[in-house]
Amino acid sequence: MSNVSIKPAPPQAPPAGLSATLVLALGTFAVGTDAFVVAGFLPPMAEDLHVGTATAGWSVTAFAAAYALLSPVLATLLARLPRRTLLIAALATLGLANLGSALAPSMAVLLLTRVLAAAGAAAYTPNAGAAAASLVRPEQRARALAVVVGGLTVATAVGVPLGNAASHWASWRVTLAIVAGLCLAVAAVLAPIMPPVPGSPRVPLRTRLAVLRRPAVLTVLPLTVLGMAAGYTAYAYSVPVLTAVHVPEHAVLWMLLLYGLGAVGGNLASGWATDRFGSSVVLTAGYAVMALALGALAWLAASGADAVPLVGALVLLWGASCWCQTPPQQHRLIEVAPQEAPLVVSLNSSGIYAGIGLGATLGGSALGSGAGPVYGLGAALSVAALLFLRLSLRRSRPS
């Protein structure tokens, strides 16, 4: 969702609106791939940079934390820029940052370029959806938004596995160079086909963050951070923790694909289920399933049992339960702050990346003890998220 207001489309939307929307979706695919791809090649990257895998994981934390912090700040600073200029500049920044990451001679340089990449991603993602909605007729807006957001969803499903495969065929540096090339190519294509879209009125950062003072929002938003941290504690180090449960190195790609398919299915199913059964039911089921899946993986890692088909099923459930959180959490936030719906949804996006950064940090701290503790920590955080949810629901009930 967007940090910026959506301009009403003229009665006759530009014919290029749908074409530009598809290109914008390709851009969100590049952003999503860049955000998650590093998890697919941490071990070779760590070896190349002469650091431990846990230290290399700081590249994930740096990107996620920078995105979470910069998203509301950049939305304020860049609000008045024309959307075409802003989106092209954001993609160019993302492309050049990834090129810098691909050429990084040291861990320090890599961290710097990952922060720069996060700045480009944080500027691009919210504005791509808002721009797409303004380029089409009102009856086409929902479809345009779905197409643009779909780029991120597809990246979750196939971007990381493709990155893992590319790192095997070539190297992690080539993989990041490919992401850089995709970002720059999208910027080059977007420049001539996207119609002009004006910027938005600047909303002070203090006004944007004022909603965080509401007790109801403060009750809901921390759960996004906790729940994503639970899912990402092990996923940030997916290659070493999957090989620890006897997944052959060549099969890690398929496990990542199963995770991505689970993520897409869980996200879609949770939207329907939230409308039908309510957000609390979906979140309760999601955290319970994630705790069971990660707990079972922890047991497999500790016992040394060789059960690759079972691991595949658990990874599928892990992806589904991790990414089923977003629709019900957005629903809860909109319920408690309906007048600030775009703002609280954008803050929820920051919460997602904050959780990813926290999970990567916690997973890295446990990695030296083996895969079992990493999975176990994720399971424990899932239980903590479930308890936090139930407690917050109890407190919100009228007495």
Q: What's the total count of β strands?
A: 0
The CATH architecture of the largest domain is Up-down Bundle
> What is the radius of gyration?
20 Å
The number of domains is 2
Fraction of residues in β-strands = under 5%
The mean pLDDT is 86
Q: Would you give an account of this structure?
A:
The protein has 399 residues and is mostly helical. It has two domains: 1-203, Up-down Bundle (Growth Hormone, Chain: A); 207-399, MFS general substrate transporter like domains (Growth Hormone, Chain: A), CATH 1.20.1250.20. It has 17 helices and no strands. The chain has helices spanning 17-36, 42-48, 53-56, 58-77, 83-102, 107-134, 141-169, 172-193, 205-209, 215-235, 238-243, 252-277, 279-303, 308-323, 326-336, 341-367, 371-396. Helix 4 (58-77) crosses helix 6 and helix 6 (107-134) packs antiparallel against helix 7. It starts with 16 loop residues before the first helix and ends with a helix. Mean pLDDT is 86; it is low at 1-15.
Concise summary:
The protein is mainly alpha-helical and 399 residues long. It has helices at 17-36, 42-48, 53-56, 58-77, 83-102, 107-134, 141-169, 172-193, 205-209, 215-235, 238-243, 252-277, 279-303, 308-323, 326-336, 341-367, 371-396.
Write the layout of secondary structure elements.
Blueprint: H1 17-36, H2 42-48, H3 53-56, H4 58-77, H5 83-102, H6 107-134, H7 141-169, H8 172-193, H9 205-209, H10 215-235, H11 238-243, H12 252-277, H13 279-303, H14 308-323, H15 326-336, H16 341-367, H17 371-396
Helix pairs in contact: 1-6, 1-7, 1-8, 4-6, 4-16, 5-6, 5-8, 6-7, 7-8, 7-12, 10-14, 10-15, 10-16, 10-17, 12-13, 12-14, 12-15, 13-14, 13-15, 13-17, 15-16, 16-17
